[in-house]
Amino acid sequence: MFSVSERDQLRRDLVNAADVDPRVVGAALTGSAAVGKEDRWSDIDFALSVERDLDAVVDDWTALMYACGAVGHLDVRRGAVLFRVFLMRSTLQVDVAFWPSDEFGATGPTFKLLFGETNDLPQAGQPDRDGLIGLAWLYALHARSSIARGRSWQAVYMINGMRDHVMSLWCLREGVNAVQGRGLDDLQDAGAFTGTLVLSTHPDELARAFHVLTGLLLGEITEPELREAVRGLSPAAANRP
């Protein structure tokens, strides 16, 4: 397990490496450290503005991270930006974002410029309500068919996916962060979801959790026709107001 001092030293080393790399024309801290909310479990989020030789910079910085103790990495892409996520031997997560310099800038409040210049970028927002509802009922349809077919583990997967999207809908309604579960612990009554946890793969238990979750989803749907269609997925939900 990494220590706070180890994390802080690695971050200083990365900032120094960016400062002396002539291809890197800007750098920023992102995530919790950018807004003074870092805790014992926080990872390192570091963004680089790269003016030239982007692929070579990615290769060189990847080699640097492995020299510093990385044991694996994965890539997440958003347009021209590469987010390379490293797992360190100490279990510390280090996210290094490689931005073309003409696209470098803050897309949210957790951005602290260390050096260089930024561009004005559209701010990332909350997920779309209609999209969350659509995915929730899609998972619900597959949960119902999985239960009916006796495919218990697929049903668990579908119920869990449905719950994720209904939880995000609650976050939207209460005005907290609806991205990746970050606002769930700020909900007024997140305990309402306790009954949606699947406690076994027995068909009756799957049906019970699914019925409870369908009722919670109905509470987020205002469109009459869609509400009635979703209500029809669960006999238990049909008795709810």
UniProtKB/TrEMBL annotation:
Alphabetized SUPFAM superfamilies for the sequence: Nucleotidyltransferase
Gene3D superfamilies: Beta Polymerase, domain 2 (3.30.460.10)
Superkingdom, taxonomy of origin: Bacteria
Name this polypeptide is given: Nucleotidyltransferase domain-containing protein
Organism listed in the record: Lentzea sokolovensis
Taxonomic lineage: Bacteria, Bacillati, Actinomycetota, Actinomycetes, Pseudonocardiales
